[in-house]
TrEMBL record:
The keyword Signal applies. Keywords: Repeat, Signal. GO terms for molecular function: RNA binding. Residues 1-17 form the signal peptide. PPR repeats lie at residues 37-71, 72-106. GO terms for biological process: chloroplast organization; Group II intron splicing. The keyword Hydrolase does not apply. It comes from Ambrosia artemisiifolia (Common ragweed). This is Pentatricopeptide repeat-containing protein.
């Protein structure tokens, strides 16, 4: 069991390793001792999201729910991050809204990913919505927003005609 867990949590994002992880995950899910675990889903969602394999990330998110787990902040953040990675801005915003509606609180990582990617996509209007949410979810929103702006300055967008 320990070897399987190590394979599933390994950070190597080689596509073949990812596919092997999925096969191992499917195998252990059928074992009597298996209990659903947020971290396994989160790790796999992160790896597939990095490879822009949205269908796999969405499938894992759905399976997490089917397993009886309530999506946590990490699961939502991985799904949002995957959507943003492939410029599916509206899906990312829908997921962000679903996250909040479910009672799941966006953390600093979630908010950073949202703000940084929305600004980079030229969606300052949506980034402003997320920035406004910081006051509701963070103890020091002004300090947080200053740190995000310092670490991730807006990229210069060239308007080529």
């Amino acid at each position: 069991m320990i070897c399987w867990m190590l394979l599933l949590s390994c950070r190597d994002s080689n596509i073949w390793t990812l596919l092997l992880r999925c096969q191992v995950f499917e195998f252990i899910r059928n074992e009597a001792w298996y209990e659903p675990d947020h971290s396994l889903y989160g790790d796999l969602m992160l790896m597939f999201g990095k490879k822009k394999l949205i269908d796999k990330v969405e499938k894992l998110f759905s399976e997490l729910i089917e397993e009886g787990l309530k999506p946590d902040t990490r699961a939502y953040t991985e799904l949002i991050g995957a959507y943003l990675k492939v410029d599916m801005i509206e899906k990312a915003m829908e997921t962000y809204d679903s996250m909040k509606a479910s009672g799941c609180i966006p953390d600093e990582l979630t908010l950073t990913i949202m703000i940084r990617n929305l600004e980079n996509a030229g969606r300052d209007d949506l980034a402003a919505v997320v920035k406004n949410d910081c006051a509701e979810y963070l103890d020091s929103p002004k300090k947080f927003l200053k740190e995000v702006a310092k670490k991730y300055p807006k990229r210069l967008r060239l308007n080529l005609v």
